[in-house]
Amino acid sequence: MEALFEVVVFLAIATFGAALARKLGLLAPILLVVLGLGLSFLPGFPHVRLDPDLVLVGILPPLLYVAALETSVPAFRLNLRPILLLAVGLVIFTAFVVGTVVHLFLPELPYAICVALGAVVAPPDAIAATAVARRVGLPRRVVTILEGESLVNDATALVLLRVAIVAATASAGSVSFGYVAQEVVVATGGGVLVGLLGVVVFGYLHKRTTDPLLDNALSLIVPFAVVFAAEEIHASGVVAVVVTGLGIGHKMPLLLSAASRLQTGAFWRLVQFLLEGLVFLLVGLQLPEVLRDLDEPTGRLVGITAAVLAAVFLARFVWVFPATYLARLVPRVRQRDPGPPVQFPIVIGWAGMRGVVTLAAALGLPLTLAGEQPYQRALFIWLAFAVIVATLVGQGATLPWVARRLKLPPDDPVADALSAATVQQQAGRAAREKLDELAEGAPPAVVERLRGLVQSRTNLAWERLGGSDRETPSQAYGRLRQEMIDAEREVFRAARDEGRIPEEVLVRAYRDLDLEESLLRRESD
């Protein structure tokens, strides 16, 4: 009962923190981390130690899954080269840069365990990247690259971490190139295969399921089932979840009914909101646990912390610029994908926020090295925690300011509206042709009403191109219809209160009116 009470308290604080962040115009992940840091100093406040397995198997899979569901597969494929350069190349580069820096400070430690720490702090966090990038309003391509990087880089880091830990804890010479290659192939290849199998199996089940509640339940099961299946064969659960999420998300219009899509979308937004808030709050609350066994001299601690932070920060910039522009020296690449403005690699370099995966990986570091040799594990956990806080609070809080100062060229809203209107006109033409095909025998008034509905939707798409401050016909319709809906609701509510209709009638009427209002609000955006 006490554990349940603590969970409810944490969720309530996370919800309050997210609401406060919106009111103050701040980024919720940053405020929640700072709030957690502050609460960790309160006497008597519950101290929670994050279980690495809980994070990597219980919290990360659903968050990765929903992020993958919302990722455009065509956009992901179009930006595959920069995504892989960041998610694979940059992670490996950062791990070895940080490992080298730590080894210079602690030469008595095996280089492998120093690289393990590098792998821990190398991957920017999927949750932080998605939450911050969308909130800041970065250009669509930058958001796609950052989200794609964060979906894949955890797998790279965790595979590298596994290999480095084995090298640090096993007997000398037991880790060969063949072992490393086998680990990489099993982790990535196995993860892809399990993920594709997940797309086939759960896609089939979604296709056969018509009840929205069952679709919701099935959707919640998917990420955990895929992770457990991948872990059973020692493959990467992260890769498996991402592949399944991308596949299901891309096919979702064909797999789920309209009611299921609406309900599943709302369900995952709630899950994402609660888990993200809880994760960032818990990261801040880990401070007492991190400091508990730390006994390094202050000067040495400050020096190595500053060096690791500098290595993490600079490694990203050192990698991003060559990765962005060197490939364009190849004429074929340059012709297909011209070099972006310099602001793009700057903001991508700045958006390197670490999060809960880094902390979970740090807590999973071995207690001893080969031959039961002790090492500064508490220091390593502190360094990982320092990187999380410094990048989330430092880079995350300043990212909006950096984006504004760089004056990133925004996505062209006119081009978006024009493409949407063009496709809407084609959709309207298809709808009218289908109506003409089926109209025989239908009441003329019904046919005309349907024609008017198609025409109004097409008109709305073209009205968005107007750019006028005057109220458009569709806006006038939305404003007046909203007032009418409010009046209808009041009549049904009064009738229920007076006992003239049962509660079930009120619920059905409100559901229909709520759906219509949500459509009005979407069309006014």
Beta-strand segment tally: 0
Average pLDDT rating: 86
Regions with pLDDT < 50 over 5+ consecutive residues? none
Helical proportion, percent range = over 70%
Q: Main sheet, how many strands, which sense, barrel?
A: none
Question: Radius of gyration, Cα only, in angstroms?
Answer: 26 Å
Distance between the termini: 44 Å
The H-and-E topology, N to C, reads as HHHHHHHHHHHHHHHHHHHHHH
Instruction: Please count the helical segments.
Output: 22
Beta-strand percent range: under 5%
Question: Which overall shape is indicated by the principal axes computed on the Cα atoms?
Answer: globular
Please explain how this structure is put together.
It is built from 22 helices and no strands. The protein has 525 residues and is mostly helical. Helix 10 (212-232) runs antiparallel to helix 11 and helix 14 crosses helix 18. The relative contact order is 0.11. The mean pLDDT is 86.
SSE topology sketch:
Elements lengths: L1 H23 L3 H12 L12 H18 L3 H6 L1 H26 L5 H11 L4 H11 L3 H30 L7 H32 L3 H21 L4 H19 L2 H28 L1 H6 L5 H28 L5 H6 L6 H8 L5 H8 L13 H30 L6 H26 L5 H20 L9 H25 L5 H22 L1
